[in-house]
Amino acid sequence: MIRDPDTLQAFVSQLRRFVEERLIPREAEVAETDRIPPDIVSEMREMGLFGMSIPEDFGGLGLTMEEEVTVAFEFGRTSPAFRSLVGTNNGIGSQGIVIDGTPEQKAYYLPRLASGEIVGSFALTEPDVGSDAGSLRTNARRVDGGYVINGTKRYITNAPHAGLFTVFARTDPDSKHAGGVSAFLVDGGTPGLKIGKIDKKMGQKGAHTADVIFEDCFVPESALLGGRENVGFKTAMKVLDRGRLHIGAVCVGVAYRLIEESLRYAMDRKQFGQPISEFQLVQAMLADSRTEAYAGKAMVLETARRKDLGENVATDAACCKLFCSEMVGRVADRAVQIHGGAGYIAEYAVERFYRDVRLFRIYEGTSQIQQLVIARNMVKEARA
Amino acid sequence: MKILVPVKRVVDYNVKIRVRPDGSGVELANVKMSMNPFDEIAVEEAIRLKEKGKATEIVAVSIGPAQSAETIRTALAMGADRGILVRTDQTVEPLAVAKILKAIIANENPGLVIMGKQAIDDDANQTGQMLGALIGWAQGTFASKVELGEGTVDVTREVDGGLQTVSLKLPAIVTTDLRLNEPRYASLPNIMKAKKKPLDETSAEALGVDLSPRLKVIKTAEPPVRQAGVKVGSIADLVAKLKNEAGVL
Question: What's an example of a GO molecular-function annotation for this chain (chain A) (predicted)?
Fold first, then answer.
């Protein structure tokens, strides 16, 4: 936890330079080779980027939510693939342990996640299970000394690199709802755990997802997250607010980058004897994008501050995720439009970002799921 | 061995410099300030020597207003061990800086001073040389490579027409050129640790140095806006213009 504006500012300006000087020049290479260069990975480790949200007692930085989103605004200014590599360690890949882990689980895994020695992965989604996590098929059968896990997980972010999987599996075969689900901490390389082929995605090249297959995968009793059965789904729900605010902040960062790219292009590109930034219809697009990005930034910061004060921000975190992910979609669309023909050419960053940002409206809860969460909470509060 | 690294707080290299309307200098209000990039290279070089076990302590010094402490903190976050701020709100010329550094060297007894060859604000490129003259140490300026030996340091210098390597007896002064190294980024854990590293404050008076300027700035002006060129119709035209108008042939 920094809780000191000077130190936070010092870090944010270092990160800004790192993004500017090291990451942005490598974006095209990452997209082309579909991998993050190892030298960049080790620099990200050295800067402490894997452990931002892990408590200081466990070797992380213990950033407050406000500090984390401030960092994400900066980190968002480059390809989402870079952030994705550290994203799970700071979010769903570690927060389950931070919130509900036993002291032994925390002491064993958190320092490794914080340093980036291992990458954490969150294995909830299945071929037939997305947001309806209650209908989970993967099961964990109790055996002598532990559990045997069977099932398939899909689109698991960072699975090909993960040293730790937080796996959600049904421990109560009779239950048909979320209550019968438990979370397990499964080490990468455990016999019976297989990683599928890397998925071919529309964008975010360099960030990898894959199937994770469990075939009679034995894990010891100590792998049960928090040492308690049938509370796994509750754990999953607890990490969501943080993740939604984080994604909202990343969307804001990408939006500002797209606006910078658009403005630079518009001031440079001449038509009819003047830069296209002088034309009012182009100005309207720039102004709309800037306004929306600012609105997103303001709501993310406000919600993050309130979360740090201990308020329940479940509804507003969903609002942030919904608005910011849709907002950056519109900003990316305008960025391509402002670039004209050039915006459709892969040489320009906006073409890549246009595809990259599409995912933001889908993962960590689709826009439609956010709408449901928001409206249901509204009704619930009105009834209470 | 102790290494002394002077670091200067200057306008950030990304900022577009604007001249004050009255021509008295450049606008500094609400302008982002950072460590002089050549000084960052100096800090990095010192840290590398320490990492190789060839130096034991790195002391970062800055001369300037209270905010120069931030610049020292940046050096500490990169890996320097402690800082000394010589606090003053006056304009400090290279000669005054060299005198202050001389006084600090008398207190600290470093085996090596590594500093930027120049600061990107006034581009004076004088302090290292003046310091060398004042204390009578050997100097290796514009370093692109520094090799520490036993009681000596070999400095490869970027000079007009190529590279020159000089072997200096320690203690010595090295000023850094751009290609010496690529400075590291300070990590957040190190930025937080830097808060706890010692940072002493002193003043020019305490060190017995008179800061009053020896130079007078008469005028500061923006560089003239570049004029549009002309197209010539033929090579003969070009030669005629070069001969008669430009006077270069």
Answer: acyl-CoA dehydrogenase activity
